[in-house]
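Support request from a user on the community tier.

User writes: "When I paste my structure tokens into the form, the page sometimes reloads and wipes my input. The last time it worked, I copied everything first. Here is what I submitted, just in case something in the input itself triggers the reload:"
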């Protein structure tokens, strides 16, 4: 049995049990939450009833909150830069305007299209300098909020996703890959927000035609600083079961500023703390709700 079939065999039977158990546990947490109406893409929520803007950026930990039904939201980097040094090889990567387009389908369901727009990679060392430039891969995602969208101290969701190989100039593999994320947010005393996420993916091996499982875990702590400015501190871990792969871990930090109720700008930097991780990755970006 291939790993993809094994992953699906493990995940799909477990989903109803996960949903049932988590929904039962959430009854008390959402007892005081306001009731919601049956809004949809073709019956949008009124502007005066919209929830607070809740981007899935700038940290790596996804939010369990969906955007409102009928809303369109774009989240993008203006640019981000990555420096990686390993075994005498230095790789510098620029990614210009990668974006995530989010569309609210129901009041607890949204669709996302994430695209690595333009990528420029320069590698020095080894066999000599190599430069690659072109477009990246397309990822389609669904976000399903199980509870907490409209109130309560916790929120939980499901986040299935599939990546399609649309890259040029060998800036990715030629495999369809996918996985499932489980994001959870807790509202803590002192106006702290703690976001946690566990994700399992089925990825293609670099060296052969086999597949392997990949496990991601992250935790992000967010707090207001002054006025409309807030900041976060995050720990991110990526453990691959592919042979000879290393543990990737980063410590990430950044700032977010609410320009209006519908626009947020941000900046941050991710710092590698293990040998397999990139050295650092600064970025700046924006979220706009239409």
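"...and here is what came back when it finally went through:"
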């Amino acid at each position: 049995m291939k790993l993809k079939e094994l992953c699906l065999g493990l995940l799909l039977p477990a989903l109803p049990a996960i949903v049932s158990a988590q929904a039962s546990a959430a009854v008390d947490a959402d007892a005081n939450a306001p009731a919601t109406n049956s809004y949809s893409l073709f019956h949008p929520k009124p502007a005066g009833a919209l929830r607070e803007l809740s981007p899935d950026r700038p940290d790596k930990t996804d939010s369990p909150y969906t955007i409102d039904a009928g809303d369109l939201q774009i989240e993008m980097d203006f640019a981000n830069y990555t420096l990686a040094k390993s075994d005498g090889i230095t790789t510098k990567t620029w990614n210009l305007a990668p974006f995530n387009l989010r569309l609210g389908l129901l009041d607890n369901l949204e669709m996302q299209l994430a695209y690595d727009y333009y990528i420029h990679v320069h590698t020095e060392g080894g066999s000599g300098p190599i430069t690659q430039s072109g477009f990246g891969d397309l990822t389609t995602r669904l976000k399903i909020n199980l509870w907490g969208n409209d109130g309560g101290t916790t929120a939980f969701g499901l986040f299935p996703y599939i990546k399609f190989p649309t890259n040029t100039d060998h800036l990715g593999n030629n495999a369809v890959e996918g996985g499932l994320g489980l994001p959870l947010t807790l509202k803590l005393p002192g106006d702290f927000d703690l976001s946690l996420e566990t994700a399992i993916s089925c990825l293609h091996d670099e060296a052969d035609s086999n597949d392997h499982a990949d496990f991601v875990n992250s935790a992000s702590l967010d707090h207001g600083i002054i006025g409309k400015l807030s900041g976060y501190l995050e720990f991110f871990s990526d453990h691959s079961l592919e042979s000879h792969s290393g543990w990737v871990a980063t410590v990430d930090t950044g700032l977010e500023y609410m320009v209006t109720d519908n626009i947020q700008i941000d900046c941050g930097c991710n710092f590698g703390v293990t040998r397999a991780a990139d050295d650092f990755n600064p970025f700046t970006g924006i979220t706009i709700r239409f």
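Agent notes: The reload is a front-end session timeout and is unrelated to the input. Confidence is low (pLDDT under 50) at residues 3-36. The CA atoms of residues 272 and 279 lie 5 Å apart. Escalated to web team.
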